[in-house]
Structure formats: C-alpha cells, structure tokens
User: What shape does this take?
Amino acid sequence: MAPLVDMRSVVKVYPNGVIANNGVNFQIEKGEIHAIVGENGAGKTTLMKILYGLEQPTSGEIFIKGEKVEFKNPLDAMHEGVGMVHQNFMQVPSFTVAENIVLGHEPTERLFLDKKKSVEVTEELSKRYGLYVESDAVTETINVGMRQRIEILKILYLGAEILILDEPTAVLTPQEIKDLFKAVRVLVEQGKTIIFITHKLREVKEISDRVTVMRNGKIMGTMLTSEATRKGLARMMVGREVFLDIHKNAMKRGKNMMSIRDLSFVSDTGRPMLRDVSFNLYAGEILGIAGVEGNGQTELVEVLTGLRVPAAGWATIGEKVVTGKTPREVRMAGVAHIPEDRLTNGLAVDVSIDDNLIVDRFFEPPIRKGLLIDYEEIEKNGEDMIKEFGILTPNGQLPVSSLSGGNMQKVVVAREFSSSPKILIAAQPTRGIDVGATEFIREQLVKKRTDGAAVLLVSADLAEVMDLSDRIITMFEGEITGVFPDASTVEEEELGYYMLGVKRQSKKEMEALL
Amino acid sequence: MRKFFSNPAVREGLRVLIAVSSALLLGFIVTLFVSEDPLGAYKAFLLGPVSKFNRFGDWIEESITLIFVGLSVAIAFKANLFSMGTEGQLLLGALVSGSIALFVPLPAILRIPLAIIAAMVAGFIWGWIPGYLKAYLDANEIVSTLMLNAIALKLYDYFLIFHIKPPDAGYNSSDFFPKEGTLMSFIPNLPFLKGVYTLFSDKTNITIMLYILIIAVIAAYYLIYRTPFGYKLRMIGANIKFARYGGINTKRTIILVFAISGIFGGLAGAHLTMGIHTKLIANISVGMGFEGIVVSILARNNPLLIPFTGLAYGYLRAGANVMERASDMSREMVFVIQALIILFVTAERFLPTIQKRIEMRKENNTHMEKLAPSDGGSHEV
Amino acid sequence: MKFDLVLKGIFSAMFLASIMRISTPLILPALGGLITELAGAINIALEGIMLTSAFTGVVVSAFTQNIWLGVLAGIAAGVLFSAILAYFHLYLETDIILAGIALNIMATGGTIFLLYILTGDKGNSSTLASGMVPVVEIPFIKDIPFFGTILSGHNIFVYAAIVLTFLTYIMLYNTKFGIHLRAVGENPTAATSLGIPVRSIKFTSILISGFLASLGGLNLSMAYLSLFQREMTAGRGFIALAAVYLGGRRPWGTFLAAILFGAADALSNQFGTLDIPSQWVQMIPYVITILALVIYALRRKAQITEQTKRFQERELAKVNNNNNA
Assistant: This one.
C-alpha cells in the first residue's frame, strides 16, 4: 500500500548557508504513530515545517495519498488534511475554549455566530477523541494540558487526518503526558495518523509504532519501535563526524568561585524548569552543560545572571549571595554573561558598536568623566575592542545592525570578556555564526579559562561542549543527570544517554564531583 | 551620483524636502482656487515673517515655545516612551510662574528666577506622575498623560477664574504682570545698544527666555548624548531588554525621563505667560503640546535638529498669520499643510529610506539566525 | 437657600434628561474608539472625524436645504476621513498615533478654513441656514410622569447612541466579524495562522469608528446645537478614549463611562449657579480614569504573583516529598 505521506529527496538550504535537510526520504503509513527524534539542529522541525507548509523545500517533492502536492502556506496543508500542533499556542487568551477551537471557521446561523453549535461541535469532537476540555472556560485560566488539547481539537475541527505534534510533552506535567498519550491512542483508533517530534526517548518507546532518527539534516534510520532500544537510538542521534581542533593546556583548577545549591524554578505555566540543581564553579576550569535545549539550561543561566528569581535555592560568590539580585549587582560581583539570544538581550542593534560595548561600564571611569561620558574614551574603547577581537567593520560608530551575525557575537564577546570577569557564563556562544568567528570565540573562551576565570558553558552543540569543557554536567528535565570530571575520557554516546535521560547517576555518585 | 543618493542622511533629507514641497504646493493650489489674489496671499505666507520686524518677532516667539515643547517630547520619545503630557506640564508651568510673577512681593532679580524655577518644578512633578505609573505599574502612558493634561487644564482654569482674575474683569484673564514679573528683552538696556534694544523691545516679545532656550537645547543635547543618564535613556529606547541585561535600572530611569521631559514643558509655559502674553489668559495653549510632538518627530527626536524644525514650523505659523492679515486667506490653511507634511514624512513606505531597507534585511537575518541550526528543541510556551 | 434648589435641580427629570443629551456626543465616538481599540488600531483621530462630519453636515444641509442629505454627507465625510487614517497606517506604515495627530490638526484647521471661505466668519456658521434633526416623542412613554421627560423627547442621535451600543455589543460578541476583530486585536499571529485577514479587518474597524464618530459630530452641530462652531468638539474625541478604558473596554462599560463624563459635565453646570467652581466636578472623571488604570494594573500584578506563587508552592511540596521519601 502506498504510504500516506511520501517526502522524496527533500533538501532545504537556508540563505545563510545552513543545510537543514540534506536529501531526506521520509514515509508515513496511515494510522501509525511515528516519532522523529534528533538533537537540536538535526533537521526534524524543518522537515515537518515543510510538510506543514510553513516552509518551502529548496528541492524535493511531497506526495499525499499518492498525489503530488505543493504547500505554499499552512492553509494549503490543512486543506490536504495535514495539521500541526505548535509549541507556541495560537490562541486568544480572552476567548472561551470553544471559541478558540472554531476560530476562523465559526459555524454561523445566517448573520450571527451559532454559539450553541460551536459548543456542540467542541463537545462532540472532545468526546469522540477523548480530549477533555471545558467548552465555556476562558482560555487564559485553564492549564497547559487543556490549552494543548485546544490546539489539537482545532486542527481536528479543520479536518486534519495527519497530526504533527512538535515536542508536545515539553510543556506538560507527568499526569498531563499520560492523558495526552491516551488521547493519541484514541485518535489513531479513529483513523488518524500521528507524527511526533521529540527528543524524549522514554516516550518514543511508550507511544510510537515506528521511529526515525535524524542527524545533521539526514535520516540515520527508520525502524519499528519494538526493535529499537533507547541506547541504540541515543547512539544514532548523537554520534558526530567532525572533530574540532582545540588546543587546550591541562586544567589548573583553582578555588571555588561560585556555589550553586538546590536551585529550583517554576515557570508561570506551572512547570518546574529547574529541580534542585547544585554544583560548584571553579576558577581555571570550563564546566560544560550538555543537554538538549529546553531542559532548564536557559532558566539556569537566567537565574545565575540576575534575570530571574529562583523559587528556591541560592548561589553565592564567596560570602555574597547572588541570586535574587539585579543584573547590575551580579555583574559587579564579577560575572559576565554571553546571552543565548544576542539580538534580544545581548545587543541593541540600532545603536552603534561603540555604545553596545560599554553598557556594563558607562557609569564608571574612564568612560564616565565627572557628570558626563567621555566620547573620546568610548571611541578609543571601541577601537581597541575592534582590533583585539577582530570585528570586521570600518569603524565603531556604525550600528550593530550593519554587522554579520558572527561579528555581532564578537561585539558581545568583546564586551563581556574585556570586563575581566572572574566568572564567565556563556550560553550558546557560537550559535548561528560563521566558522571563523566560531573558532575565534572558542579560542577566547579557552584563553579566559587558562588565565584563571571560571567558565560555565551552556551549549546545545555537543561537539563544542565536549571539546571545550574540562568537566561536563548533563541536564535533563531540569535536573542534573550526570557529572563527568574529565571531559576527554567520555564518549558522546555515553553523554547522549545522560542528556536524554536514558541513564542517570545517583546523587551519591555525583556529590563529590559537582 | 548614486553614492550621494544612497547616503541615509541624504535620503532622509530628500524625503523631508519632497514632503514639505508637496504640501506647500498643494496649499498653493488650494489658494489658487479660494483667494482673489492667490499670488499675493501666498507671497505673504512664504515671505511674511521676514517682511516686517514685529512679524519676525512673532515667528521667533512662537518658535521658542515650539522648541521647548519639542525638546520635552524628544526626551521622552527617544526612550520610546510616548508621553503626550507636555500640554499639561506647560499649563501648570504657566500657572505657577504666572502666579509668582503676579503675587510674590520680591524684586525682579529674585522673582523672575523663582518663577522660572517654579515652572520647572511644576513640570517635573507633572511628568513624574505618569512616569511612576508607567515604571512600576506598566500603566499606558498615552492614557495617563492625556488624563493629566485634562486635569491640568481644569486646575489652570479654576485658579485663573476663581483666584487670579481680578473680580471686575470682563473675561478670564489676569492683570498684566507687573514690571517685576515681566521678562526683560534679551538685548540688555545698555547705552551703546540703545538702538537695537528699542527695536527689539518695542516690536517684539523676545525675552531672556531666548537665552534659556539656547541653554535648554544644549542641555538637552548633552543630557541625551553625553551623560550616563542619557546613555541609559537611549538604551531603554533602543532595546529595553538589552538595558536590563546590561544592568541598567530601567524603572528609575523611566521615571526620571518623564520628569525631566516635564521640566521642559514647564519652561514652555513660563515662556508663554511671562514672555509672550505677560498675563495669564484662558486658552493660553491650544494644542501646543501636540504640535511639539510634530516638531520633535520631524527632527527625529534629536535636540540639535529641533531648533530647526521648530523654527520651520514656527515660520509656517507666523507666515499664516501674516497671510491672514494681508489677504483674504485664513491662517488655518497652514494646519492643513502641516498635517500633510506630517503624514508624508512619517509614512515609512513613502520613499522607503535606506534605514528601512537595512531594517528589513535585518529582520530577515534575525529570522534566519533563529531558524538555523537551533532547529527543534523545546522552548517554554 | 440656593443649595437645596440645586439639589432639587439635580434630581429633576429635566436634569437627568440633559445628561442623556450631553453624553450622546461622547458615547458615539467612544463606541468607535472601543471598536478600533479591540482591533488593535487605536483611533486617536476621533476628534478630527467628529469635526469633519459636524462641519460637512451643516454645510450640506444648508446648501441643499435638506437635513437628511446633510446627515448623509456628514457621515460620508467622516468615513472618508477615517479611511485616510486607515490607508496611511495600514498601507504606508505611518505610526497610527502620529497619523491620528496629523489628521486632528488637519480637521481643526481645515474646518475653520472652509468655514471662513463659506461664511466669512471664523467663529461659527450662524449665517448658514443649516438644519436640526428631528426630536422624537415616543407615544405613551412621553406621558409618564418623570420618566417620560427622561426617556422621550430626545433628538434621534440620543436614541441612536443607545441602539448602536446594543448593536456594537451584538457585533463584537455574536458575529463572525466581531470575533475575528477581537482575535486580531489580541493575538494577530494566531489570527493570521487561521487565515483571518488582519489588515482588512483593521481597515474596516477604522471605517466603522469613522461612521460612529461622524454621528457624534453630527449630533453636535445638528442637534445639540444648530450650527458649527470652531473646535466645537472640545476634546470629546479624547474623552471618548478615556471612556473606553474606564469602561473596561466593553460596550456597556464604555456607554456608562461616557455617561459618567457627561454627568460630570452637566453637574458642573448646575454647581455653577452656586459659585462652586465647576472645574472640580469636571475633573472627577479624569481622576477616576487614572485610578482605574492604577487599580487595573495592580490587580493584574497581584493575579500573576498569586498564580506563580501557587505553582511554586505546589512544586516545592513535591520536591520536599521526594527528598523525604
């Protein structure tokens, strides 16, 4: 029988040169639950965005039920029965559940909305597919699980036969995950087909019929879930082909610069993002945090840099507590921060390079001179930084927006490094930038570490973590699952197991090493 | 040649020039239809302010008010804070300085500085209120400043009608300010300047406020571009998340921005009462606050350019006044021209500037960088 | 004593009826402001639209000697004026506030300018024989004591205001267009993802607000007064926006808030006879609006902190249980 969905030789290359999908052949059978797994950057979300019409492939074809299709936008895809449940819910908070489900295609009675019918339709769909929702509840008051069910019911209402769920369990509590799986099984019983994007291997084993592993834009393999092991999957997901060439002197660990104890954080949708995270940061060492994005790393960095207040726990530098303080206070304590999103936090793109370089020191001499700020100093500072960090620009008065991504990041790095920090927190420091800048920044990180700073490196790029770090911690679902005191002796597969929750070290094992 | 036109400043200037010329042309076409002597009328409009000395004075006086108001707006807008409150700050500044000029029994050398400082303080306070509401409660500053404008107007009217107006006055106005409360001409009354002095003080109301204005422009420029506070202001305006990440105390800065903007509004009020009218009258300002917004926007919120846009805007107004007196055209036509200028200059799609093109390219870059290679991954909703 | 005369006046039917009349030119533009606010395209130009329609109605009714033509022309002018706002904002990407300010300036100046050309008078249009819209006497009701005076005998715009509030409510909450409009204002990304045309909905909402504001303007020049006066809107366009926020951004709330402003105005006139300064009474609604803003913001904050706290406590409890286990 011809597959329900047949994607052939799909290639997707982005304008900045990144090859997200590299000749992917992917088939889905009717009525199956198919999981696609892979690390960040593997290409799984891109592939599904193409299937869903949000992106167009650079080349390749899609066939649905044997017919060739071309999706210019999600509505085209919806027309053919392909629906996607996003992570960012497309809902109007003040509307009721029923209103959100039928939004855009409301049943009408002549000129007016047929509200009764909306509720009827909602209840009917809800019952048929076992997706419990309160039709009259106001959307912003309900829990995340129900909000997700709204998204699912929405596309069922529009006639979706093929449902693509993008990391659906990322926002759910364990009970809600159980409910979701029950619902998924009902959907399949009713003749739907489900595609599941995830990196949670336990869930793959629990719910899916088949699983496809993607890595670096290619499909590594497709198999029956019953024949796959979590270890095997992890191995396929995580192996790498490129070995980075970083020269590192032996680590000379100094004193404990920052103590982090029992950090916990709950998001405002109620989900615990950090659970009892504890470790030490030592001078002269790069501590890398390996893990798929979304397992608490972002929140950890935000807590440690004063951008968030933890629900429990603390971090200290010497005697000083640095959690629950303002970013200024944290910086004054000697912490520098390369943020994971340079465009949102790290830079003001319409402002000059020179001005971006001084946000952490404009109020002190030499930039500040009495009541004023000294422009000559600012320009000189800019010149020095541009030279020292090789920022490609004719002068420092141009806005940051005139720079390439890599050079923009260099501005961030120049600023943060030049403050002579005792502690350096770098989150995704080489994401989205060219090779030259990447090499440079990595070298700089190592240099800082060798000069005695304590470096915390958070990166979704496992190769980067492994090559740069002296010691590695793995995080999964907000917890530390493993600590590896010597990064050079651990294999990526092994790390993969811990990153994906397949393996876990016990508290006792980790105690001495954190 | 191509290089000349791809310079962003040139394109901006060109845009403004085309907008202004189109508006003026349209105005002329209207005049052709309406007036019996269109050429005479339009000549009066375009050349009026420089034709007679007192008209020249009108132009400068109006412009001084407009520039003060423009500076007030610029300070707030540069921080991306949409304060509409200059109107109210102006009124209270006028009220307070006018009251002191009228009633406080001090010699001029003390009374006048006191009045001016009081106007600044009144403006500061009236700006502080919406600043606090915005910083700590995230209250919509457009609504709060509009409300405070209305309240300020009521306060002004109340005090004018029930406490300041002489009981036998026929209409709502105070007495003329006594000599001790009147601003002196900006030309000092020295023997060797006698001719110039008489000329300016007889035919114009250009007072020492002019000097204060010059200081204000320089002060505003320095404040925004050369002080740590100004740096904070600009970063908040450019990217408030960046400002917070970098350690700036955004709440405190926001309040100060509103309050300092209020100071300039207060000064505008002092100029209106003690400089131009030398008494407190009803309707002392009709929408000056909003015109100040226009002056600032046309100057891209840059204090050094505001004197120019203020003078240009003031020129149009003064020209319209002359036109009305010298012909059968009414001065209100200038408002239509002003409105057209605003619409054309602020229409981003009308001759998109290089700035816009860079922005659009930047948006694409951002989009791309967000997509690759951090593909997948679970982000919290 | 004068005071109890005033009290008697306040509680008289005449006074309450006058509140309705005074509030009408606030209710109508406020409804327009509400609709654009909910669509995410706040209309600052209500003032200008009202002036435009007020002027056009007077002029056309005078020259055609036909009241209804005047009304129609006034509406057409107002809607066209709002279309300019919509075009500049949605197609030429002008900031909507700047465009609104520009149009207000244009209307203020333009109406005086044209007034002068047509009548040679810059103050008002008294030389023009413009008309007034009819007053409606509702049979039976007009004979009820006390309430009859309040409910009957108003000009058509007063009744239109009430009916239109009702219609606005129906439109916003019971029609496809209304629900799409609210979706566009609250979450345009979601709306786009479902194929809802954001731009055309915003455009239509601005035109509708133009229609409503036009009625308010016509009310001023062809019912409340029988002529056009320069700047006769006297800030009502902005009070209308305040009423939208004070009324919690809902139709009947806006209606009541507008009446509050109108009542304050009427009250202040009454107090005038007592030599109590009217300004203090007039100030009340503005102060209330600011207080409402503050209260609303505080409530929002409290809500969020409470919710986060609840979650945190729940999770910490779990963690503690795990530790103890």
Notes: Residues 106 and 203 of chain A are 35 Å apart (CA to CA). Chain A has three domains: 5-238, 245-334+421-514, 343-419. Chain A has a mean pLDDT of 89. The longest helix of chain A spans residues 174-189.
